Structures are given as structure tokens and as C-alpha cells.
Amino acid sequence: xxxxxxxxEDFVEILSTKAPVPGGGGASALVGALGTxxxxxxxxLTVGKKKxxxxxxxxxxxxxxxxxxxxxxxxxxxEDAKVFEPLSxxxxxxxxxxxxxxxxxxxxxxxxxDACSVPMEIMRKCCEAIDVIEEFAKKGSVIALSDAGVGxxxxxAALLGASLNVFINTKSMANREYAEVLNAEANEMIRxxxxxxxxxxxxxxxxxxK
Length: 210
Hints:
210 residues; mainly alpha
């Protein structure tokens, strides 16, 4: 059974155990899916309303993007588990002899790159989702405004959560040049999109208080 077909109770239960997967990366992807879905809900509550007829085409286009992102995030829950298991096994490889040390180092470099690839993609998808939610918040139905704010907060949390799964792996890479390229991209996404998510959240918060 894939993790995305687990019940909420079962997913949370296995997440709390010492099982190697799912972990922080998969959980971040799931949170990203939830955040995106909340933005999408704003769109669903906007389409078909006369009050928002002028932006309906924009909302429909945003919903199509959100639908695709939701599927991407759920796929990444599974992908994160697939790439982490080989890394978990590689950490347990023997290193008693020089040959074993060399083989472990070779394998580790491969699986560390793979293990970074998915949380990096999760981060990129979070950035796309925050852009979409920003538009839902601006153009969508005010009756669902709070959901856009929650969606932005969730996607920021998913962005930051996924980043830690990048950094824990780049820290162990022997190829420092490659590691720093990933670190730089991740840090830039955090810099730009944490702020953008905060702007969306704060804007929603202020509008709800008026």
C-alpha cells in the first residue's frame, strides 16, 4: 500500500514510529498538498458566482494549476520514501576495510544526491503553490479568505520542512561544490517565498479584522 492511500490515522501512526519512511520530506509534501488544496477550495467557492464573473477565467486557470500541484505533492510523498530507503541502508554499510570505506563513500554520494532531489522538488512546488494561493487570495471569494491564509501558512511550513531534508543531506556530501549549489537554491527559495507566504498570510489576517 502506498502512503498516500493510508488513512489519516494510519499515516500519523506510522510517522510517529521508528520506521525510516515516511519522514520529514514526505510529511512536508503532504502538508504542501493540503495547503494547495485549501487554496483550490477558495477557487471552488468562487467559480459560478456572479459577483466574481470578471475573474472566473483566471480562477479556473488557477484551479487547473492547483489540481496539478496537488497531484505532484502526493506523488512526492511516495518519491521521498523511495529515495530515502537506499540512503538509510547505505548508512549501515560496513567500513572496516579500505575497500569497504571506498565502496560506502561511492554509494553514499549517489544516494545522497537522490535523497536531495525530492525535497528540492518539494520546495520548488511549494514556491509554485504559494504563487497560486497568492492569486486565490486576491481574486477569490471573500467567504473563503481564511482558507487562502491557512494554505499560504501550510505551504511555507512545507517549504521550510523540505529545506531541512535538503540541508541534512548536503551536509554529508563529499562533493562540496554540488552541495553548495543546492544549498544556494534552497536558501533563495526560502528567502523569497517565506516572505511571499507571510505577505499573503498577513494580508488575509488584516482583511479578516476589518
